[in-house]
Amino acid sequence: MLNRNKEPGMGRWNGVGGKLEQGESPLACIIREAYEETGIQLGRDQVKYTGAVTWVNEYETSGMYAFIAEMAPGFEYETPVATPEGILCWKHKDWICNTKNLGVIGHVPHFLPVMLTEQMLYEHRFSFSNSVSNHYEKLPLRGELKY
Questions:
Q1: Distance separating alpha carbons of residues 22 and 134, to the nearest angstrom
Q2: 141: CB partners within 8 A, 6+ apart
Q3: 5-33: b or e for each residue (b if 16 or more CB lie within 10 Å)?
């Protein structure tokens, strides 16, 4: 997990990732972002698409493709470590998914357990008003992501 130095989510724990570059596939994006933010070089076979997360507010709709990476047996990466993006640290999934944990970005405990345990792909849609989440929907995705 990354404790972010900047908005959005400054000072809170979130997953690693970032914005798609022009012409870049979602898979290429997460492999690039994981390397840029952690120094970990992921292979295509280590990364699994697990759904989408969208945020809807009064002004816009935005979102992300979500992926989970499986590290090779014996992989070692000592944390915590400070990076330009923030502090990287391995966290136990029970800690991350605890809805009472205010140190984690608020929507992560809603979608991450689903992505870790269910085979079905979903869009996890969060509605916001005045920067406060007021509604969550889990909607089945049809088809597969082409990357």
A1: 32
A2: 51, 52, 121, 122, 123
A3: eeeebeebbbbbbeeeeeeeebbebbbbb
Tally of CA atoms within 13 A in the half-sphere of 90 that contains its CB? 7
**Under 8 Å CB-to-CB from 77, ≥6 apart: which residues?**
38, 40, 71, 90
Q: What is the pTM of this model?
A: 0.91
DSSP state of 98: -
Place of tokens 């049809």: 142
- Length in residues, the chain: 147
Partners of 99 in beta bridges: none
pLDDT digits (tens, 9 = 90+) for 25-76: 999 999 999 999 999 999 999 999 999 999 999 899 999 999 999 999 999 9
Domain with residues 2-140, CATH architecture = Alpha-Beta Complex (3.90)
CA-CA distance, 51 to 61, in Å (whole number)? 16
User: How far is the C-alpha of 31 from the C-alpha of 42, rounded, in Å?
Assistant: 6
CA distance 10 to 50: 25
